[in-house]
Amino acid sequence: MKVSQVSPDESGIVSWPGTLGARSSVVTIGVFDGMHRGHQALLRQVVELAAKGQDRPMALVFDPSPKLVHSYADSHDMVEPPSDLIRHDPDQIMPMEERLRLMAQLGLEQVVVVRYTLAFAAKSYRFFLKQLTERLAMRTLVLGRDARMGAGRSGDIGAIGALADTGLFNLEVVDDQGPGDCTLPDADGLERHQVRAWSSTHLRQLIQDGDVDTALDILGRPHMVQGMVIHGEQRGRRLGFPTANLAPDSQGMMPADGVYAGWLVDLGLPTDPMATPEGREGRLAQGSPWRMPAAISIGTKETFLAPGEHMPQVLEANAVRPDWVDLYGHRVRVEFLSRLRGQKRYAGEEPLKQQLALDADRTLELTKAAERAFSVN
């Protein structure tokens, strides 16, 4: 799969690489944060339609997310968000690297990552779609039924369909075939609103609530975060449960404080010859020796805090295996299968050790059952 990155100029105009229009294409557009089953249904339709017409299956991915750009601008006198906020978007479910990896698995041939700016957003949906037909040779546009685009988000499915009816392109509207809508509270917790069950909005809420079990159903795979292993206080090793501590700048949305069953995948040192896309796929595969069942703790180590003391949230993953593995400086991936329990303060090290042993046993039980299910499917 080829990946291109484009940035609009100050007036919002994109200079699309000429090679993108060398062959007619089937295109979809979005952020695809989380790559949930709704996204997957959309992208599979792109690949299937492209195969029928011998077109190129292509996705345009906006980065940063329109939500981040507009929400920041609305509260900062219409200024673009700073680069540091873009790199650490608190609402981002999944890093771009992982979205692209999954898109390649689904069979896309081309992804164009478009830097989303206020000037770009000010262009009408008509102007944007005309650009796609002229510069990307878009024959067919594939969208979900809730899609909107263009200045003021005025380009809904009805308006886009009317433009398609002029013969400029074909429009294919995909239903994600999910369970329909669900109700979520607004930020203040007072109002409630309807969203698609298979949506990034719903998925984000589930992860923030620690409901990784339901998130797995929407994703079709475990939610993940990844980052570098750093030195901690080595308290877990002393207790007999050594952990890999993730650096604070890890990628992926952190679930709520609690203890989870899942997997720890060693992606190797950044300089490792296996630290390639091909090598990574081998490490992530079921049965890989780099893929280890893990009891994952997210929290502030309440048992060891003095009265009035506070510390930042940390993620610690205890690889449930008979020997300790040195992962300092390695990039790792942590996958969340199921929530085991909430965090609590223990009376001392002994009751904590007993609970950690129970967490490890339950983790092995759940991961073995999941691996058997994965192998059947």
From TrEMBL:
Residues 218-368 form the Riboflavin kinase domain. Transmembrane segments: none annotated. It catalyses: riboflavin + ATP = FMN + ADP + H(+); FMN + ATP + H(+) = FAD + diphosphate. It comes from the Bacteria. It holds the Pfam family Flavokinase. Keywords: ATP-binding, FAD, Flavoprotein, FMN, Kinase, Nucleotide-binding, Nucleotidyltransferase, Transferase. GO terms for molecular function: kinase activity. Pathway: Cofactor biosynthesis; FAD biosynthesis; FAD from FMN: step 1/1. SUPFAM superfamilies: Nucleotidylyl transferase, Riboflavin kinase-like. Belongs to the RibF family. This is Riboflavin kinase. It comes from Bifidobacterium kimbladii.
